[in-house]
Design goal:
By secondary structure, the chain is of the alpha/beta class. The chain has helices spanning 13-26, 37-42, 45-54, 67-76, 91-100, 109-116, 143-153, 176-200, 211-216, 351-357, 362-367; strands at 7-11, 31-35, 61-64, 82-84, 102-106, 126-131, 159-164, 206-207, 224-225, 251-263, 268-269, 275-276, 281-286, 303-308, 311-318, 326-331, 341-345, 375-377. It has 2 domains: 13-232, Alpha-Beta Barrel (TIM Barrel); 251-377, Lyase, Ornithine Decarboxylase, Chain A, domain 1, CATH 2.40.37.10. 30% of the residues lie in helices and 24% in strands. The strands form 3 sheets. Strands 8-7-6-5-4-3-2-9 form an 8-stranded parallel sheet. A 6-stranded antiparallel beta barrel has the order 10-13-16-15-14-17. The radius of gyration is 24 Å and the shape is elongated.
Length: 378
């Protein structure tokens, strides 16, 4: 109640450590590559990376999407390897990989051509990840091309070659289609892994599982796992809440009541008169909107928490989300007024529930919180 901001986010670093510890519980033998792309899913890359580096659970490196993210992270994390999931685009970026200990993912022929003409400076070694397309059909080499590249590159003394893929539909394994699709992916990966081991005389270190695989497929943890959304306290699994999975929310998004109005039955609120009150009630205007990152697609009934004298009370969004404001039905709450705090998601209100009411996923909620919402680490 002492914060002057109209909208702000708090980042619970203890929850972040807890969630990393949960990964370690599930993967006691695997190396953990903490995914901190997209500003650590909107939570602050530098701050989260430092927590992961120092955590007792132990990580062996970070993963980001782009070379720009890798360079930014290297400025605050000078020691641990950084996996670059999109790989390099040209010779300059390839040289940066060798110079700055980035581990590029190889997923297309132009990267292989560049690498064939490149040699790491004497005594140095570059770790590269061959990405096999097992069915996701975004980035990745076909099996034949992946095997040929692995057999060639794995014989070079300046390269450490690793193998990876990515699960496309492992978040709904109770569904027969999901289970069958995932098994096809795992079989394709196992076959390539076996063939490459035969070519090289030793099995290459490998990685398949991100958050859903970590939680559901212990036989697919392999040598390295790549947790992402579960580190930040959201469930990657349909029908399973974060709390059920032993995860804690890291980001809590806060705002305040700007005004409280008495409205009569039949009166409308907001653009398009999209909501009319079925009864006389108290309505609150909250200091957050889509310009802050609150989803415009959130529908009537999306929950929020409002601080009252009796604790946090669950209320419902009514009317359209505006650029800077939303409106909520306060029902019979009497001991609230301008300045009362509101939680949009986080502590006490699962972001996955809010995301479902907005027709999206928590990943998008977290990453779309805008720069005008200050973040404070707790």
């Amino acid at each position: 109640m002492n914060s002057p901001q109209r909208a702000w986010a708090t980042i619970d670093l203890a929850a972040l450590r807890h969630n990393l510890g949960r990964v370690r519980e599930l993967c006691p033998e695997a190396g953990i590559v903490a995914v901190v792309k997209a500003d650590a899913y909107g939570h602050g890359m530098a701050e989260c990376a430092e927590v992961f580096r120092e955590a007792e659970a132990g990580i062996c490196g970070f993963a980001v999407a782009t070379m720009d993210e890798a360079r930014q992270l290297r400025s605050s994390q000078p020691e641990l390897p950084i996996q670059c999931l999109n790989g390099f685009r040209d010779g300059e970026e390839l040289r940066d990989c060798a110079r700055l200990d980035f581990q590029p993912v190889l997923h297309e022929e132009n990267q292989l051509r560049l690498l064939r003409d490149f040699r790491v400076e004497q005594g140095g070694r570059l770790t590269v990840w061959l990405k096999l397309n097992t069915g996701m059909n975004r980035l990745g080499l076909a099996a034949e091309a992946c095997l040929a590249a692995g057999a060639e590159l794995g014989k070079r003394d300046d390269l450490d070659v690793r193998l990876m893929s990515h699960l496309a539909w492992a978040d709904e394994l109770d569904d027969a289609g999901s289970a069958a699709f995932t098994q096809e992916q795992l079989l394709a990966f196992e076959n390539l892994h076996r063939d490459l081991a035969s070519e090289l005389g030793a099995a290459p270190p490998s990685s398949m599982s991100a958050s859903s695989g970590i939680l559901c497929l212990p036989d697919a943890h392999y040598d390295f796992v790549r947790p992402g959304i579960m580190l930040y306290g959201s469930s990657p699994l349909g029908g399973r809440s974060a709390a059920e999975l032993g995860l804690r929310p890291v980001m809590t998004l806060h705002a305040r009541l700007l005004a409280v109005r008495e409205v009569r039955a039949g009166e409308a609120v907001g653009y398009g008169a999209a909501w009319r009150f079925p009864r006389d009630t108290r309505m609150g205007v909250v200091s957050i909107g889509y310009a802050d990152g609150y989803p415009r697609s959130a529908v009537n009934g999306t929950p929020v928490l409002v601080a009252s004298g009796g604790g946090w009370e669950r209320c419902k969004l009514v009317g359209r989300v505006s650029m800077d404001m939303i409106t909520v039905d306060l029902d019979e709450l009497e001991d609230v007024g301008p300045g009362s705090e509101v939680i949009l998601w986080g502590g006490g209100l699962d972001a996955d529930e809010v995301a479902a009411r907005a027709g999206t996923i928590a990943y998008e909620l977290f990453t779309r919180v805008t720069s005008r919402v200050p973040k404070t680490c707790l």
